[in-house]
Amino acid sequence: MVREIKHPTALALLIALATTPAMAVQPDEILADPALEHRAREISKELRCLVCRNENIDDSNADLARDLRLLVRERLTEGDTDDEVIDFVVDRYGEYVLLNPTTRGSNWVLWAAGPAMLALALLIGGLFLRRRAAAPEQELSEEEEDRLRQILDR
After folding, report:
1. How far is CA 110 from its chain centroid?
2. CB distance 10 to 3 below 8 Å
3. How far is residue 109's CA from residue 92's CA, in Å, rounded to a whole number?
4. Which residues of the chain have pLDDT under 70?
5. 69 Cβ partners below 8 Å, 6+ apart?
6. Do the Cβ atoms of 62 and 17 come closer than 8 Å?
7. Is there a contact between 15 and 5 (Cβ–Cβ < 8 Å)?
8. Residue 23: what pLDDT?
9. Could you tell me which of 23, 31, 27, 24 has the C-alpha nearest to residue 75?
């Protein structure tokens, strides 16, 4: 037996709650100090889950993401600054763990590749159009003109 929902706002609220992303942070991971927990959440938003790829560790249910969340909280309780925690995780897992990679080191090549390719494509396109515009138009020979008239007269 299906019950009729008498309040459409209740249905809308139920649908809205069902479509919101669930946080993967477990109750046993949450720190007692609200300030440290807030810092841990902010750091977690910057770190990529290495299993889920483009999902931060705060939203991921993967075991590795849980381990990273616990590691972040452990480092914060030991007194590390936010930058020290991020540096520790990057030293351990590499720069791929950052959702927003830095522009230093070999990453500058990746950051510069897009604009460089665009500039190269514009240069090649400009040279092609310039060469095409500069090419002299050739007149048709008499044989070609006769053949063209025959085709058009049909």
Report:
1. 13
2. no
3. 23
4. 1-8, 10-29
5. 25, 29, 40, 44, 57, 58
6. no
7. no
8. 56
9. 31
Tokens representing 131 are 């060469």
Other Cβ atoms within 10 Å of 90 Cβ, number: 16
C-alpha to C-alpha distance for 47 and 54, rounded to whole angstroms: 10
Encoded tokens for 27: 């109750």
Place of tokens 């019950």: 3
Give the residue extent of every domain in the chain: 8-97, 107-153
At residue 94, the pLDDT reads 85
pLDDT in tens, 11-54: 566 565 554 444 566 666 677 778 888 988 899 898 988 888 78
Q: Which stretches of 58-136 are DSSP H helices?
A: 63-77, 82-93, 107-134
Stated pTM of the model:
0.57
Residues 6+ apart with CB under 8 A from 63: 51
Other beta carbons within 10 angstroms of residue 64's beta carbon come to: 14
Q: Are 37 and 74 in contact (CB under 8 A)?
A: no
CA pair distance 27, 126, nearest whole angstrom: 60
CATH code of the domain occupying 8-97: 1.10.8.640
CA contacts within 13 A on the Cβ side of 1 = 1
